[in-house]
Structure formats: C-alpha cells, structure tokens
Amino acid sequence: MNALILVGSPKGRVSASWMLGSRLAEGLRDHGVTVQYGMVHHELRSGEGTAKLLDLFDSSDLVVLAFPLYVDSLPAPLTRLLELAAERRGRTSAPGNPRLAVVVQCGFPEAHQCDTAIGICRRFAGSAGMGWAGALAMGMGGSLEGDFRRLPGGGKQILDALGKTAEALARGGDIPDEAKAVFARPLMPRWLYILTGNLGWRLKMRKNKARRPIGDRPYAQG
Ligand SMILES: Cc1cc2nc3c(=O)[nH]c(=O)nc-3n(C[C@H](O)[C@H](O)[C@H](O)COP(=O)(O)O)c2cc1C
C-alpha cells in the first residue's frame, strides 16, 4: 500500500500537524505501508511542486490530510490542492480509490470544533469518488509542541489512538471509533489550557517586543 501524508500547516515540520502526521506515518510504516509526505504550503508555491503532489495523490492508495483547523475549515492551500485533485479525476479513476483519512486539531479546547472541517472532507471524498476512512480530531492543539513526552500522561492517549489508527488503515479498514474517542479526549482541564495559553501569548509578546495591549485593532474601521 502507498500512503501520502499531506501536511496542511504553513509551519511545516515544526507544526502540531507534522507531529501527529509523522507519528501516524511511523505506525503505517511499521505495518508495511510505503509512506511519502507532501508539505502542501511549500509545494503549492510552484507549478512543479503542485504537479508532484497531484501525481503522488493519484498514485496513492491512502491519502491522509494532517492539518490545523482554520476558521472552522481547511487551510486554503489544502482546499486548493483538493480542488485540483478532483478536477483531474476522470472516468478512468478507480471508484473508492484512493481512500481519504483526516487528522485535524484546533486551538480551541473542544475537539467538536473540527466537525465542520471533517464534514467538508467527507463530502469531498464522496463527490470526488474517493473512499472515506474517517477522521481523528482533537482540541487543545496549542499544547502540541515538539515532543509527545512533554504532554500530560506522556501523550499516551494520542499515541494509542494513532497506533490503532495506523493498524486499521494499513489493513484497509476505517479509523476505529475507539481511536476517535481517545484522540478527542481533552489533554488537560479546560481552565489549565486557557491559563497556559494566555501565559504563552504574553511570553510571545514580550519576546517579540509587542508592547501594545493584545486586544488592539489598529486597522479596524470606526
Ligand atoms: C488563520 C488561523 C485560523 C484559525 N482558526 C481556528 C478555528 O476556527 N478554530 C480553532 O479552534 N482554532 C483555530 N486556529 C488555531 C489553530 O488550529 C491551532 O493553533 C493549531 O494547533 C495550529 O496547528 P499547526 O501547528 O499544525 O499549524 C486558527 C489559527 C490560524 C492561524
């Protein structure tokens, strides 16, 4: 089986999307799947990169979209790539192939914020004649930085969910409901996430010498 992991964050390999997508890729490889990556924002900047990703898309049995939630939806370059991939699908494309799976995370604490984006991907798969293998979604994406071991509980729940997902996808199945439920479980109490998130913003402001109050809207009309 050939799998393509499309990383939809402009932060590339320092993103939460990469952290999750690359760990899923490791699990797929452990089950004999050949995995390639596509860094969507980077590749779509050139015609050559776009053509490369579209060719990989067409020759894959499984495409995994690993992306951050942007305004309840997908980052624009990822949407663009899906539009281009759909345009290329003709009568010769095998129905149900490739299968599409999603790993999405967002900045708000609740995993259900990702439901609209998942719905978009599922409908895309249906209308493009691809298979739909399901989605993993989690909130509190802001706490995913670098190393799973720094997460509460050593990130065990995420690693377990990704492991079960890799196993199921590698044998041609869908993402198990159990993995979805474990992945969606909050990593920490909501109040703690908000507290550390606010502290993080203040530290970033200081580091970047941003002195204005963070609520300022200098370009807002009226
Ligand atoms: C332009 C933009 C729009 C966003 N929209 C949402 C949103 O609608 N809901 C949400 O919960 N988080 C939103 N976020 C937060 C990201 O989903 C979150 O920071 C995520 O963890 C980033 O993942 P990454 O490291 O893979 O880029 C948004 C972030 C940006 C930059």
CATH superfamily: Flavodoxin domain
Write down how many β-strands occur, each being a DSSP E stretch of 2 or more residues.
5
Which spans of ≥5 residues are poorly predicted at pLDDT below 50?
none
Name the strands of the widest sheet in spatial order. Answer: 2-1-3-4-5
- For the record, give the distance between the C-alpha atoms at the N and C termini, rounded to a whole number: 57 Å
Structure in words:
The protein has 222 residues and is an alpha/beta fold. The chain has a single domain (2-207), classed as Rossmann fold (3-Layer(aba) Sandwich). It is built from 8 helices and 5 strands. A 5-stranded parallel beta sheet has the order 2-1-3-4-5, with helices on both faces. Helix 5 links the parallel strand 4 and strand 5 (131-138). Helix 1 crosses helix 6 and helix 6 runs antiparallel to helix 7. Bound molecules: flavin mononucleotide (FMN).
Offer a quick outline of the entry.
The protein is built from eight helices and five strands; from the N terminus they run βαβααβαβαβααα.
List the helices and strands and how they pair.
Layout: E1 2-7, H1 16-30, E2 34-39, H2 40-43, H3 47-58, E3 62-68, H4 76-88, E4 99-105, H5 115-127, E5 131-138, H6 156-170, H7 177-184, H8 190-207
The structure holds flavin mononucleotide (FMN).
The site of flavin mononucleotide (FMN) has 17 residues, from helix 1.
What are the defining features of this structure?
Rossmann fold, 222 residues, binds flavin mononucleotide, five-stranded parallel sheet, alpha/beta
